[in-house]
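CHAIN AND CONFORMATION:

***
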Amino acid sequence: MGENRIERIAHLIKKEVAEMLIREVKDPRIGMVTITGVTVSKDLKIAHIYYSAFGSEKQLQDSAIGLRQATKFIQREIGRRIRMRYTPVIDFQFDHSLEYGSHIDQILKDLSLPKEAEVPEKDAKDESEQPDQKD
């Protein structure tokens, strides 16, 4: 199956799921959840949906539970909205990349890097005015 088709389907799933989470899924546990990516298996039977969420550890766990409970609804809606032979099985996965990037950013901010040593600038004009001495 063409990679372009798989990518298009992944993009459509990402768009539809993000819209459903904003407009249709009313579970208060699913708070600040962002869909960061979707990968679809080559046979289009499994869709891994990556999400990030902000909040405390308890809020992250609640978001995961809310997404798990909304999975069947989301899967059914995907089947209704995207014309495919098989509706992919939805698998929500927490995306640690944003958390990891934030951690790396904080480490870089905390580092006390030494300031560059000041190097006196040479006056190029002085050097060019001196005649070449040949002995």
Strands lie at 33-40, 46-53, 89-94. The chain has a mean pLDDT of 85. The domain at 3-96 is CATH 3.30.300.20 (GMP Synthetase; Chain A, domain 3).
